[in-house]
Design goal:
19% strand; 139 residues; alpha/beta; Rossmann fold
Amino acid sequence: MSFNVLIVDDSISMRAVIKKIILISGFKMGQCVEAANGKEALKALEDNWMDVIVSDINMPEMNGFELLQSLKEDDFLKHIPVILISTEGSKERMRDAFNLGAKGFIKKPFTPEAVKQILCEVIGESNEEDTGDTEVFDF
């Protein structure tokens, strides 16, 4: 099973990096939609079903915290897990993120393994590698 991911960051190059990191991590990503800020993310959610949102905090127009607040106020969208990515990894910043409803927090810089681990935890999927060995022998 693959999962649809919405990547929200005002930097087009950072969105590309996040997408590439998710892909090389081995996380099973289906559709990937990108947005430059929280307002664009909400617009994208009108037309696309997303299983998880990966968002920066500091963005123009609508930042990551404001996006979390908007999602929390929508009965349908509030169930989509949000992972925030930021260079600001202080305990206060992380506490604020979780108090607003974030399900995960990734501090920049990050590794593919760390991104996959948090994505799997938030979605409730196993982080184990699929060996493809699905045959069952009954002796």
